[in-house]
## 1
Amino acid sequence: MTFTADLASTSFSNAFASDNQLANAVPATTALFKRLSVDDQLAVLWYVYTECGRSITPAAPGAARLQLAEGLLNQIKQMSHAQQLEVMRDLAAKRNSQISRSYGILSPNTKLAFWYQLAEWMVQSFVVPMPPGYQLSRDGEKVLGAIKQLDFGQQITVLRNTVIDMGVDPLAD
C-alpha cells in the first residue's frame, strides 16, 4: 500500500472522529441522565452502583472522606423508608431542605461515596430498597446501557457529573 496525503488525511479524520466520539460520550451520557425523571435517575444510580458497582465504585469510597458525610448518612438511615425515599428524591430534584443543603457542600468524591453507601444500604434493606419487580423505563434503560458501554474512567466521570449537581449548594448564590 502506498502512503499518500489523502490516505493520511482519511486515517487522521477517522481517528479524530473516534476520539471525538469517546470524548463526547461522557457529556452526552450525563445529559441523557439529567433528562430522566427523578425516580429514573435514582433507579439508574442504584442499578449502576449495584450491577456495575464492583468495577465502578470501589474507587469512590476510598478516594472520598466519607466520614464527612457519616452524620448525614446516619440521619437518613434512622428515617422510615418513605422518608428516605423522599430525601433521595429531594436530592435528585435539588429541592431546598436541610439535608439537601448539607449534601450540597460535600466534595464530589464524597458525594460519589455517599450514593455508594446508600446503594449498599439499599441492598441490605437499611435504606428503602428497590421495589420487587421494579422495571426501569425505556429511557432509563438507554442511559444505563450507555454507562455500561463506557470505560472505567468515563463511568466515574458520568457518576461524578450526575451526583455533583444533586442537592442544594448553600454557598452558591
## 2
Amino acid sequence: MPEESPARVLLDVHELVDDSPVPSGARWTLTEPGRQLDANLIHLPARQRVDTHSEPDLDVLLVVVAGDGRVGTPDEEQTLADGNVVWLPRGSTRNITAGTTGLSYLTIHRRRPGLQIRNRPGQ
C-alpha cells in the first residue's frame, strides 16, 4: 500500500484575491502528485467574461471566494456572491461574468486522465 501524504494547507486564497489589477486567468492550480482532483483558482477582473461553453465529461464545483458576478445558462442567469457554492453538472452549458468588483472562484472536479498514446485498431 502506498504511503499516505499528510494533510496540509496548500494556500490562503485571500492572499491571491486582492484588488490589484491583474489579468484574468488561473492564479493557482492544484499540482500535487497522485491527486484524484483538479482545482484552479480563477480570477476575472471587473466585467470580464468566460464565454459560453460546456463540459461534456465532468461535474464541476465552483466556489466563489471573492467578488461578485453572474453565471448564465440557456434558461437563466444567477447572481454569484462571495461564499456561494455552485454545482455545474456535466453537459451543462454556461458562461460566467464578473461584476463591478471582479470575481475570484475555485473550480474543483475529478482529475482528467492523462493523454495516452495508443495504436489504432488493426495496426
## 3
Amino acid sequence: MVATDPQADLTAAQSSPGLLGQLIRFALIGGFCALVDLGTYTLLTQVAGMATSPWVDVARAISFIVGTTTAFFLNRKFTFAGGRRDGKAQIGSFVLLYTVTFFVAVGVNQLALQVLPESAWQHTLCWAVSQATATVINFVMLKWVVFREPSTKEN
C-alpha cells in the first residue's frame, strides 16, 4: 500500500523511538548537559570565586540555566517525537517545568550544602544530588506533559 499523504511519510520518519529509546537518548543527552552544567558550576565556584553564600546559589542558578537550556533543545530534537510540533505551547510548558525544577535544584543544592560535611568534594556532591533530583522530575514531566505525543486511539 502506498501512502498518498506526504505528512504520513513525515510522521512515520519522526515517530517516537519508544520508552527505552527515549530513556537511552535522554540519558546520553543528559550526561552531556550535566557535564555542561557541572563545568559551568565548577568554573563559577572554583575559578570565579563564587563558592560562598550567597554566590554559590547564583553559581548553581547560572549552571542550571545553561545546562537545562541545552538539554531542552537537544531533547526536543532527538529524544521526544512530540517535541517536533506545537512549539509555542511547549516552550511555555518548558519554562514552567524548568522554573519549578530550578527552585528544586537550587534548594536541594543548598540543603545538601548544609547537611553534608565540608570536604574537597562537597560542592560537586551537592551538585550531583540536586542534579539527580531535577533529572528525575524533568524526564517524567518532559515525557508525559511537555513533549507528550498525541494518542493513537481514535475517539
## 4
Amino acid sequence: MFKVESYNANRENNYQLLLKQLKALLEGETNPVANFSNASALLNQFLDRINWVGFYLMEDGELVLGPFQGLPACVRIPVGKGVCGTAVSRMETIRVADVHQFPGHIACDAASQSEIVIPMVDNGKLVGVLDIDSPEKDRFDELDQRMLEEFVSLLMNLYKG
C-alpha cells in the first residue's frame, strides 16, 4: 500500500485508486458496521500524518462513536458541539487547520492539531460523519477535502442502513 504524500505529484491518482479499493471492499457486503470498519482501516492505511480516523453515527439526535482506527475517543458528541457536531449542524464539510483555534473544540486526543469532518447523508438523512485528525497543523488541503467527500459519497451510495 502506498501513502498519499509519498507520491505528491500523483495524489489525485492515488485517491482514485483508494476509491476503487473501497468499492471492491464494500461490494456485496450490506452490514454498515463491517463497511465502516473496513473504510476506516483503509483510510488509516492510505493516509499518512494522521492519528485518528473513524465514524460518528447519528443516534437519538447525537453523534455516537462508530468504527475507527486510533486511540480511544469521545463516545458521544452533541449536534453543534466541536468540529463533528458543527459539521452536522451546518451539513457541510469542515476543515480545520488548527483545532486549538476552533471555538468549542472537543479534545479527545491532545496530539490532534488539525481535523477534517465530512457529513454522511443517505437519501437526505444524516447517517453520521467521517472524522480524521492529524498531529500536524494544516494537514488537510482542498484536494484531500474533495477526494474524501468523494470517498464518503461512494460509501453512502453503497450504504444499506
